[in-house]
Amino acid sequence: MTVLKQTPLYPLYAETEGARTIDFGGWELPVQFSGIQAEHDAVRERAGLFDVSHMGEVEVRGDAAEAWLQKLTVNDVAKLADGSAQYSLMCYEDGGTVDDLLVYRIEAGRYLLVLNAANLQKDLEWLNRHLADGVTLTDRSAETALLALQGPLAARIIAKVAADPTELSALRPFTFLAETEVCGVKALVSRTGYTGEDGFELYADAADAPALWRGLLEAGKPEGLIPIGLGARDTLRFEAGLSLYGQELSAAISPLEAGLARFVKLDKGDFIGREALARQKEAGVPRRMVGIEMVDRGIPRPHYPLYAGPEESAERIGEVTTGTRSPSLKRDLGLALVKADSAEPGTELWIEIRGKRLKAVVIGLPFYKRTRKEAAK
């Protein structure tokens, strides 16, 4: 029998009535606390608190750290200043994706990489295989807890319990404080997230995670802050058009095909996968990630095939990567990887659902884009 890994906050899940856990890549994690729709709405309208301590954290140090990260990732690490972060990806030589990640520059010669939990061992093997002189790697995952406070009222809530609320409220997206105090707990706090809303991610010592979790939930009670599970985490990122490794990204899907060309800096110099990505761009990216909306009644699900027409002889043009009924928009939507000539908005296509071909149409991304709600100051 497989023993599932648990985060430092696992014992606290029971403090919320209705919490239900599942096996998520070998981790016992909450799929929901009070219900996916209620949790989704809380993040869109007020605020939600996520336990994402299963994510991997790897510290990179050394005089050659910047040059090495430039070689390993597709974004331009040289553009990072102390206290700033960037979204990036690592690629194989053929342009397929090893993983997507966040790169934090703490100071010159010191970085933090945040990796997908399911890919952590594979990523560590990849990083160590390409390790250069003058660079050391330290896996901090087991000793680090990660909480995400997300939603339009996140800044108001964290200001109540921050040692320096002015500094935190001044953070711009993808900037961070390397060390500050929240709920009396020392933490790295960044203005990042995976929901399409404003918010913060807090990295703290695993032993301090319960105090941070309870302190934030208590502070956020007047604003309607509630804990959020994996179910709403997925619907939130889906509506915002954010990629999930294993669905919109994989060893067989390049960042260019996934619609992430803006993060691929072909002009920064050599990096692993650059030649393949440059050839792909020059020849024309063969497949593209698009949004689709059902015209006929039905819900697109991952791996459902897509066709150019309803007839049996119609060409297969792609497949759904993620799909559901949007909790915010109340529409049946999907992300899909399709042939480039079928990627224009307005293109009709047919999705096979339980043996029947139903009409859908290509639409723009993201499905949801946040507007300023109540000022989060």
Structural class: alpha+beta
Task: Give the name of the CATH superfamily of the domain at 10-53 and 142-239.
Answer: Probable tRNA modification gtpase trme, domain 1
Structural shape = globular
Q: What is the makeup of the main sheet?
A: 6 strands, mixed
Low-confidence residue ranges? none
Instruction: Please give the radius of gyration in angstroms.
Output: 21 Å
Number of strands: 19
Level-2 CATH architecture of the domain at 10-53 and 142-239 = 2-Layer Sandwich
Question: What does this 3D model show about the protein?
Answer:
- The chain has 377 residues and is of the alpha+beta class.
- Among the domains are: 10-53 and 142-239, Gyrase A, domain 2, CATH 3.30.1360.120; 286-363, Beta Barrel (Elongation Factor Tu (Ef-tu), domain 3), CATH 2.40.30.110.
- It has eight helices and 19 strands.
- It has helices spanning 36-45, 65-72, 120-129, 154-161, 165-169, 209-220, 230-239, 274-283, and strands at 20-24, 27-32, 48-51, 56-61, 84-91, 97-107, 110-115, 136-139, 144-150, 176-182, 185-190, 199-205, 226-228, 287-294, 305-307, 316-325, 332-339, 348-353, 356-363.
- A six-stranded mixed sheet has the order 10-11-12-9-3-13, sandwiched between helices. The chain has a six-stranded antiparallel beta barrel with strand order 14-17-16-15-18-19. Strands 5-6-7-4-8 form a five-stranded antiparallel sheet.
- Helix 4 packs across helix 6 (209-220).
- The longest helix is centred in the middle third of the chain and has 12 residues, at 209-220.
- It starts with 19 loop residues before the first strand and ends in a 14-residue tail after the last strand.
- The mean pLDDT is 96.
